[in-house]
Amino acid sequence: MSKALSHAKITPRRSSDRGHADHGWLNSYHTFSFASYYDPAFESFGSLRVLNEDRVAPHTGFPTHPHRDAEIFSYILSGELTHRDSMVAKGYETTGATNGSGSGSGKNDFYRMKRDDRHRPQRAERK
User: Fold this and answer.
1) Is residue 120 helix, strand or coil?
2) What is the pLDDT of residues 83-120, one digit of tens each?
3) What is the per-residue DSSP string for 65-102?
4) How many helices (H) and strands (E) would you count in the chain?
5) pTM for this structure?
6) 99 phi and psi, to 5 degrees?
């Protein structure tokens, strides 16, 4: 284990114990406190702030939304999506693909599901 994480303790967490939000078009499970889910025992893991598992309904997606001071990594478990951000990065991802981006002082992201439900865990780390 690296010196930076020598103090870290990994605590197993069952899926059913995580936060959950179902917005119809987005079904999401939150490992750490996120949006309206709050659990003081699970706010972060070092600089890791978000570890969500998202399922996005076909032909829907996240509207344009801001990110600031975060590094974001997504892994597509199933489905296809398009991605666009205000830094002019555009992409198309499918099952098994990864998407990583740094937001620096700020950027806006847009995700749109193309066909099947998109299933992805998402991770965002604070800088």
Assistant:
1) strand
2) 776 665 666 677 888 777 776 555 555 555 555 555 76
3) EEE-SEEEEEE-SBSEEEEEETTS-EEEEETT-EEEEE
4) 0, 10
5) 0.73
6) -140, 120
In the numeric block, which tokens belong to residue 80?
Answer: 């296809």
Q: How far apart are CA 36 and CA 127, in angstroms?
A: 23
Exposed e or buried b for every residue in 17-53, given b needs 16+ CB within 10 A? ebbeeeeeebbbbbbbbbeebeeeebeebeeebbbbb
Report the alpha-carbon distance of residue 68 to residue 62 in Å, rounded.
Answer: 16
Under 8 Å CB-to-CB from 39, ≥6 apart: which residues?
19, 32, 33
Residue type, 69: D
Structure tokens at 13: 């967490």
Helix (H) / strand (E) element for 54: namely strand 48-56
3-class secondary structure, 111: strand
